[in-house]
Amino acid sequence: MALGTLYIHHPSARTPAILAIAKEYGIELDIVHADTHGGENYDKLIQVNSLAQIPVFVGPGGFVLTECIPIALYITSQSDTTTLLGSNQREYYQIIQWMSMVNSEMIPNIGGVMLPLLGRQQPVRQNSEDCLRRFHIGCKRLDTHLQKNRYLAGDQVTLADLFSVGAIIFAVKIFHKVLEAQYPRLFSWFHEVYEIPMFKEVVGEFEPLDMPVPMLPEELVPN
């Protein structure tokens, strides 16, 4: 019996970790792809989340969770033996810290850089150069932390690592040469987490793309 219904887009930066963890722990979810405005699934999404944002989890008894972080925490916590939520309270809050940073900073700024390359524009953060600058700042913060720590929270892989890697997959595919050169620790951590079998089974083989990318002026690159 399914734990509930998960509304997603495909692809989505915010759902790879949720899907991988659910599959690893044998948690059955009814997946609904609500991609098309005006379609039947989109109409269903509007009924449970008037903001029409994904992911949305709908459980029994009218239980609804919106926003990716609480959904990811809820799905992960269904396992009594999970190690993905840290080994103590401090690590648990560090997990939330990194997920929040990636969700609020990295994903919107990646969108602000990447969507114009695809001929699309997002409704917020439309200054692509500023988004590129903020993307580099986020990369620098992650790289600096990972120079002293193997993983984001604690000494083993947690939800923070899986969520964050899932969130930046498309950016790494495009900016792989830049990231490898300027943020080597971030780059190696990304690939270590990506290659975890339970994660890779959901996201597939990593295939970098060879295309022109916008470059940040040298004076704006964070030190």
Summarize this entry quickly.
With 223 residues, this protein is an alpha+beta fold.
Describe this structure in words.
Helix content is about 55%, strand content about 5%. With about 220 residues, the protein is α+β, with helices and mostly antiparallel strands. The chain has a 4-stranded mixed beta sheet with strand order 2-1-3-4, with helices on both faces. α1 links the parallel β1 and β2. α1 packs parallel to α3, α1 packs across α8 and α4 packs across α6.
What low-confidence regions span 5 or more consecutive residues with pLDDT below 50? none
Strand percent estimate: 5-15%
Give the N-to-C terminal Cα separation: 51 Å
Mean pLDDT: 93
Structural class, from helix and strand content? alpha+beta
Strands across the major sheet, in which order?
Answer: 2-1-3-4
Which shape, going by the Cα principal axes?
globular
How many strand segments? 4
Rg over CA atoms, rounded to whole Å, is: 18 Å
List the helices and strands in order: EHEHEEHHHHHH
- Let me know the largest β-sheet: 4 strands, mixed
Number of distinct helices? 8
Helix coverage percent: 40-55%
Descriptive key words:
7% strand, alpha+beta, globular, 223 residues, single chain, 4 strands, 53% helix
List the helices and strands and how they pair.
Elements (H helix, E strand, L loop, with lengths): L3 E5 L7 H9 L4 E5 L6 H9 L7 E3 L5 E3 L1 H9 L12 H29 L10 H21 L10 H24 L1 H11 L2 H7 L20
Parallel strand pairs: 1-2
Antiparallel strand pairs: 1-3, 3-4
Helix pairs in contact: 1-3, 1-8, 4-5, 4-6, 5-7, 6-7
